[in-house]
Amino acid sequence: MSSSQINPPPRLLMGPGPINADPRVLRAMSAQLVGQYDPAMTGYMNEVMELYRGVFKTSNEATFLVDGTSRAGIEAALISLIEPGAKVLVPIFGRFGHLLKEIAVRAGAEVAVREKTWGQVFTPEEIEQAIIEERPALLALVQGDTSTTMNQPLEDIGEICQRHGVLFYTDVTASLAGNEFSADEWKIDAVTAGLQKCLGGPSGSAPISLSDRAVDAIRSRRHVEAGIADGTAGRGTRIASNYFDLAMIMDYWAPQRLNHHTEATSMLYGARECARLLLDEGLDAAVARHELHGRAMLAGVQGLGLEVFGDITHKMNNVVAVDIPAGVDGDAVRSAMLADYGIEIGTSFGPLHGKVWRIGTMGYNARKDAVMITLAALEQVLRAGGAEVRPGGGTGAAAEIYQDHAGSQAQQPGEVPA
Ligand SMILES: *Cc1c(COP(=O)(O)O)cnc(C)c1O
After folding, report:
1. Best probe residue, ligand 1, of 66, 70, 205, 318 (max atoms within 8 Å of C-beta)
2. How far is the CA of 55 from the centre of ligand 1 (A)?
3. Of 13, 41, 202, 229, which shows the fewest CB atoms inside 10 Å?
4. Cα 233 to middle of ligand 1, angstroms
5. What spacing in Å lies between the alpha carbon of 17 and ligand 1's midpoint?
6. pTM for the whole structure
7. Pairing of strands 356-360, 62-67
8. Spatial distance between the Cα atoms of 418 and 416, rounded to a whole number of angstroms
9. Stretch 280-286: mean pLDDT
């Protein structure tokens, strides 16, 4: 049997991720391989470390990639930071909080949780109270949870953690580059991400950054077998995973370049291009772009007469959860969007399954044309299914947001004409 060349159908991916990769990222990924220790390759590795320091807003030396999807970064961070038997606190406000809890349990932690009703976030006071009650060694908290679209404010949490001697890990996969994030200013000890949300790449690489405190905790778990004779090895329990042993992965990325895995070269090219494009645009500009197109999509679905789920004052810029109207078959609408218009929108999990659609405006797809086309298609699909929507209400409301924005841009004070 012969199979034909791969030729995926043209799609506009407007769900909660993955989204369409930026063509420049795909082109970077098609570049030829070089050897693992070729100076060109080690040079690219050093560039990637520096680029992601910019993306995470950190001066952390230990900033690199874990090979694998975002979950590989989460797992590497947790399995390397958590000593078996250690107490870990996981405040949960959506599906990915449950994932952190599950991985922490597998890492042998004694896990304490706090839970919020889906659609809400924690206050710093609630988190501090839980820290006082539980005395954890590590706090593991998601920033943007795509399952509920909520964006947990993190800016005060690191300070609280430091005061109580707690290490602070956060998963920013869904939020990074589309919402504010600042690793050093917010005193974050460990942060992991992925490429397939606001960074505009495919999944398969997990950028990570570790503070000196986190590096010390991890290095103390190195074992003499690793050949390290600097006296720091072997204080803690050996990290249970080889592939996700961040002490070994750091030794591979750091100057000594001790062999560990074979770096996923094509993914590294892609991750490098994602960061390069983002820093070229400017982090603030990228966040502002996600804010604008997210606001247009929000106004658009509301303009159609649809209701939006959750506390929208804490909504991520890059995704909105839309209540499926009574009497409308949510899965049939998603199927029609895909079959008739080539547009993918998302469903949800757990308590929200069958209750909301999730519509993303992120990365390469945080664009006006993508927003307008999605709203126009959604209107037609809903009308074809007999739902009551305001004709032109979605695209009209979004267009107004864009017009106001263009107006305010035109009047920017202090602009010098070219
Ligand atoms: C999308 C998402 C992930 C994705 O993990 P993968 O392993 O890349 O599928 C992880 N964490 C959060 C918060 C996400 O929104």
Report:
1. 70
2. 18
3. 229
4. 32
5. 8
6. 0.95
7. unpaired
8. 6
9. 98
> Could you tell me the residue ranges of all domains in the chain?
21-278, 283-407
Q: Residue 73: which residues within 8 A CB-CB, separation 6 or more? A: 66, 171, 173, 192, 193, 194, 206, 207, 208
Query: CATH for 283-407?
Result: 3.90.1150.10
pLDDT number for residue 399: 98
pLDDT in tens, 1-35: 679 999 999 999 999 999 999 999 999 999 999 99
Q: In CATH, what number does 21-278 get? A: 3.40.640.10
pLDDT in tens, 101-130: 999 999 999 999 999 999 999 999 999 999
376 CA → ligand 1 middle, Å: 29
What are phi and psi for residue 195, nearest 5 degrees?
A: -100, -20
Q: Residues enclosing ligand 1, CB less than 6 A?
A: 17, 69-71, 96, 142, 145-146, 171, 173-174, 194, 203
Contacts of 229 (CB under 8 A, 6+ apart): none
Pocket test for ligand 1, best of 13, 118, 142, 146 (most atoms within 8 A of CB): 146
Nearest protein CA to atom 1 of ligand 1, as residue = 174
Name the residue with tokens 């589309």. 178
d(CA 131, CA 178): 29
- CB atoms near residue 117 (< 10 Å): 10
The one-letter code for the residue type at 360 is G
Tokens representing 19?
């989204």
Minimum CA distance residue for ligand 1 atom 5: 70
